[in-house]
Amino acid sequence: QIGKLEAEQDNIEEWVFGIRDSRLRRVFQLRYLEGLTQEKVGRKMNIDRSVVSRKIDSYLKLAHKTQKTQL
After folding, report:
1. From CA 1, how far away is CA 68, in angstroms rounded?
2. How far apart are CA 46 and CA 1, in angstroms?
3. In degrees, to the nearest 5, what angle opens at C-alpha 68 toward C-alphas 1 and 19?
4. Three-class SS of residue 17?
5. Long-range Cβ pairs for the range 62-65 (8 Å, 24+)
6. Each residue of 5-63: pLDDT tens digit?
7. What 3-state class would DSSP assign to 4?
8. Which tops the pLDDT comparison, 69 or 49?
9. In Å, how far are 6, 45, 47 from 11, measured between CA atoms?
10. Inter-residue contact 25 to 35 (CB < 8 Å)
């Protein structure tokens, strides 16, 4: 079970580090790898929490759409 979780963590990290836009990558790092709330991510990056939310939402939708197209 721990091996599965470690493999999943590795996959998530690889996916996040594969994001080309450095600011967006930083948003994902802070939110999903470091576990900060959207509000704290916003404070660290000097952007509003709603901007953090929109950036995450937009990128995930784009990634999902791209993945569906590749199937």
Report:
1. 29
2. 38
3. 70
4. helix
5. none
6. 999 999 999 999 999 999 999 999 999 999 999 999 999 999 999 999 999 999 999 98
7. helix
8. 49
9. 9, 25, 28
10. no
pLDDT at 70: 72
Tokens 């836009």 belong to: 21
pLDDT at 68 over 80: no
- φ, ψ at 12 (rounded to 5°): -65, -45
Distance CA 26, CA 30 (A): 6
Per residue, the 3-state secondary structure of 28-70, as one string, reads: HHHHHHCCCCHHHHHHHHCCCHHHHHHHHHHHHHHHHHHHHHH
- Write down the pTM of the prediction: 0.87
